[in-house]
Amino acid sequence: MKTPSATRTTFDYRAPEDLDGLADALGTARGAVSVLGGGTMLVPDISHGTAQPDTVVDLARTGLSGLRRADGEVVVGAMTTYRDLLTTAPAPVPLLRRLAAGVTGGPQIRNRGTVGGSAAFANPSSDVPAALLALRARMRLLSPDGVREVPASDFYTGPFATVRRDDEALIEITLPDPGAASFGYVKFKLSVGSWPIVTATAVAESGGGLRVAVGGAGRVPVAVMLTEPADPADPEWLAHIRERVESELDSVGTWTDELAEGTYRRRIAGTIAARSVAALRGDDERR
Amino acid sequence: MTASTPAAGIGASTRRRDGAALLTGRARYVDDYRPHGLHYAAVVRSTVAHGRIRSVDVSGAETAPGVVLVLTGEQAARHAGPIPYFISPATRGGREVDIRCLEPELVTYVGQPVAAVVARSRVEAQSAAAAVRVEYDSLPHVLDADTALLPDSPRVYPDWQDNVVFAKTYGAGDAEEALHGADVVVSGEFRIARSTTAPVEPRGYVASWDATDEALTVHGSCQNPHQLRYMLSASLGLAESAIRVVTAKIGGSFGLKMQGLPEETLVCLLSMLSRRPVKWIEDRRESLMSGAREQIHRIRVGAKADGTITGLVNRIVADAGAMTAQAGWAMCNMSASTFPSGYRVPDCRVELRLVATNKPPLSAARGFGKDAAHFVMERAVDLVARRLALDPGEVRRRNFIRAGEFPYRTATGLNIDSGDFAGLLDKAQAAIDYPAVRELQRRRREQGRPLGVGIAFELTPESSDSPGTFVSGFDTTTVRMSLTGRVTVLTGVTSPGGGNDTGIAQIVGAELGVPVEWIDVVQGDTDRCPTGFGNFSGRSMVVGGGSAALAARDVRATLRTVGARLLERDPEACEVVDGTVRSVSEPDCAVPVPEVAHAVLTRAFAAAAEVEPVLESTRAYKPGNIDHRPDELGRIQPYPTYSSCLHIAVVEVDAETGKVDVVDYAMAHDCGTMINPDLVEGQAWGAITMGIGSALTEQLVFDAGGRLVSDRFKSYLLPRAGDVPEFRLEHQVTPSPFTMHGNKGAGEAGVGGAQAAVANAVEDALAPVGACVRSLPLTPPVVLDLIEEATR
Fold first, then answer.
1. Which InterPro entries does the annotation name (chain B) (predicted)?
2. What homologous superfamily does CATH list for B37-139+199-287?
C-alpha cells in the first residue's frame, strides 16, 4: 500500500484482518515495527519525523473494538475508542467512561483515540495507564508465539516503555473487577489544553480495601493499598496517604517534561490522591 | 447588541463583510493560492545556538527526489543583500547587524535559516532539507539577559564590545529626590517570561517570478504590503515597480506578520533562482520561535502616606534574543515610555537596556511592549496600596490624571489626548459589583479558600508615527464610484483578521450617503491600493477611516453638485442620503445616486458641465497630537491617541496545587468613538484572553542548548474557552479631540491590563499568607512556590 503522502519517510504498511493475520504480520514485519491504534500519537510523530518505523501494523481491521463481559470480568478490546466508552450503555466500566468524558482534544481525539493505544504508548501523562493499575487490569499481548497476559502493575517499565516486545501487540485488556464497588477519579491539569499533570483513581475494591493509583507523577503509574479513613479530611490520614504515594514515587522516579518538573508533580501527588478518595466518598470534588 | 442598533453607519455593529466566507470556509488564505507549476520550499535551520558555519554539504539534498534547487547562505549572499530594518536601531543610537535571508557565517540562535530547498512537493522539500549537512564551530552561548550583561559573558555578536543592542533613559524631574522625600518606598523585581502570539494561521508566502517580464508577484500572509515591497526591492535589487505584493486573507497576526523576517526575501529569491512559483508555509514549530516579550524590571516607587505616588525609578533589562530586521526589537521603547501610565507622577526615571541573547528574535506582538509597563506599574501601585493598607482602587483613584487635565503630558513625554480614568474604575467596579465580591472574598477566607480581586489600569498609546521609518502616523485611501454607483474603496491599511474593512465601509457609507452593500473594500494589494502602511499600532480605523472619510466627502461633493443640477436645485440645499441626492427641504425631490453617477460620467458637457467629471478621490489623513520636535528634555510625542481601560479580575487559587482559576472578569474600555462596537468587543475579548494566557500558562521554554522545547500546543499552553470566564465588558466614550471621528486605537488594549489584573488578584488571594507576585506566568508550580516561600 502506498505510504501516506504527508510523511517524510516511507514504511511498510500492514493491516491484518484477524488475529492470525496480526500474529503473522508481527512475525514477518521488516525492521522497526510500530503498532497503530487510533493514530492520535503515532501519526503526528511520523509526520514530524520523530517516529520513523520501517513497518506499521494497523489494528484497525482486526476486530479488536468494543467491550464484552466474560466470567464476571470485562474484556476491553484494544481498539475501543473513547467514544465507544462514552456511548456504550450501561457503561460496563464506569471508571473508564468517566475517564473518557474528561479527554480533551475534541471529537477527533475521542473518535480516534483508543484505550489500547493509550495503554501501550505508556505516556506518563496519559489518563489510561494509572486507571488500569487501579482496576488491576491484565494486559493480553499477542505475538507469533501466542498470547501472554501481564498484570498492568508489571506492564509499565518506564516512560513510553512497557514489557511489550517488538513482535507483540496489545490486543485486549481484562478488568477483573470492572464495576469496582465505587471509585473516585481526579485529574489535575495546568489548563484545559494541558496534558494531565497528576491523575488519581481511588477504587473501593469489591473484596474490601481501598486502592489508589496515581498517574502522571512518576515515570510509571503507581498504586497503593490503604485502609479506608473514617474521615478523609483528617490531617493524620492526609499525611499518611501523602507519605505512601511519595514513597512509591520515589521508588519509580518522578516524571519531568516541559509542562512540569517531577518535584512539582511529587508535591501535589498526595493531594490529588487524597482528593480521589474524597471523590470516591462523594465529598467535595475539586478539579 | 440591542435590537434597536442600526445596521449601518458609524456606531452600528454592522455584520462583518467577510463573515459568511470565513464561516463557510470560502475565505482564501495564502495556502489556498496554487499557481500552475507551484513548488515548495523548506528551510534548513541552525541546530546550534551560537557558532560559525564551517561547511554546508548539500550533495544529499541535491540528488533527493523532486528537488530543483538547494541554496546555501553563501550562495544566497551573491544574489540578495541585507534585509532593511523596519525600524533601524542604529538611527536611534543602537547597534545593528546585517540580517540575511540565509545566514552565511555566524548563527546566533537555534532555528536561524542557513539553507533552503525547493522541491516538487512539501514532503520532498522537507526530506531534502533534512539531508543538508551543516557543520558548525560552536561558540559559547548565552540565553539569559542578566547573564548577557556580565562582563565575562559570551558576546552574541563577537565584534560588539558587549551585548547591549540599545540603551536609553526616559523621564523627567528628580525621581531619586522624590523617593528620598516619600513616606514609603516600595520596590520589587518583576520578571516577564517569553511568550508568543500564536495566530491560528502561521506566516506564509507564495512568490512567482516571471522571468519574461522580470516581475515578481508575492502573495503573503503579512500586515504591511507596501513595506514588504520596499524591503524586497532593497534586498533583491529589483525596482519596486517590478514587484506586486498581495496580502491574502489573514488568519490572525498580532504583529507577528510585520515585515523584516528572512523567509520573505528567501522565498522570493528561491522563485527567482528556480524560475518557478515557490510556496513556503511556516509550520507551528517555526511559528512558536518568535518571542513576544521577555523583560526584567527593577522598580522603586515612593508614595505619601495617603497613597499619592511621588516618584518612580525603574531599570529595565529587555531580552531581544538575536537581532531581527522586524519591528519586534523596538517594543522595549514602549515598555519604558508608557511609564508612569495614566498616573500623575512627575518625577520618573526609566532606564532601559535591550540585550541580545542566543535565542530566536522577538517579533512585534499585540501590546508592543506597553503590556510590560502595565504589568509592572500596576503591580507597583498594588504594592503601595498594600504597604499603606489602602484599597487598591482608592490608590488608583488618588493618582489618576483627572478628567479635566487633558491633554496631559506625562513624565516620559507622552501627550495623552483624553480620557476619564476614574470613570472607568467606577464602571468596572459596578460591573463586577466590587463591594459584593469583597464580601465574597471575606467569606471564602473564613473557609480557608483563597479568592482574590485584582485591579489594573491600562493606557494604550496608539497609531504611532516614527519619522524616517515604516511606522507611519498617516494613511491613504481612494474612494471610487463607478457608472452604476458601485463604490470601490482602496485603502492602504490592512486587516489582520479584526474586520476593519467592515468599519471602513461603514464610514464610507455614512460619509457618501450610500448603503454599505454598494461598497467593496480592497486592501493589501500594492498594484491596486494607494501607497499605505498596513496594520499596526491600532491605526487602521483612525487613519484608514479618516482618509476614507476625506475621499468619500470629495466624491459626495461632486454627486451633490450634479444631483442638484439634475433636480434643478441649489447644491447647498441638497444632501446625499440613503443612496439618493435630494433636497433637504423637499425629501421627495430626489434622484438616485446611480443616476447621478451616470450623469457625471456620461454627460460631462451637460449636467456635469460645472464639475471635473471624476468620481474618485485619493486622500491622506494625518491625525493631530503628533509632535516630533524634541522638547527641552528631548522628549517627542509620537502618538495621536491614547485608549484606556480598567480591568478587574477575580481569581480562585488552589492553595494545595497552586492552580489559579479566573472566575470573574470585568473590563471597562474607552477607545473614544466606536465605529463598530461588536468589532471593538471582539478585539477586547481576544486581547484579554491573550493577557490571561500569558499571565497563567503561556511560556516559551528553551533547553540549556537554546533549543525551544515548548514547540507545540501541548507544551505551549494557550487558554481555551474553558480557561476564561465570560467577560463583563463596559464601554466609556471620551472622544479624541485629535482624530476625525473621535476614535482611538482599538485592538491592542487588553493584554497588559489582563496580565496585571490577574497577577494582582493572585497576590490579593494570597494576602493572608503574605505572598508577593514577582513574575509571569503564574503557573501552578510558581504559585505553589510563592505560597511555600511566604509560609516558610
1. Ald_Oxase/Xan_DH_a/b, Ald_Oxase/Xan_DH_a/b_sf, Ald_Oxase/xanthine_DH-like, AldOxase/xan_DH_MoCoBD1, AldOxase/xan_DH_MoCoBD2, AldOxase/xan_DH_Mopterin-bd_sf
2. Aldehyde oxidase/xanthine dehydrogenase, a/b hammerhead (3.90.1170.50)
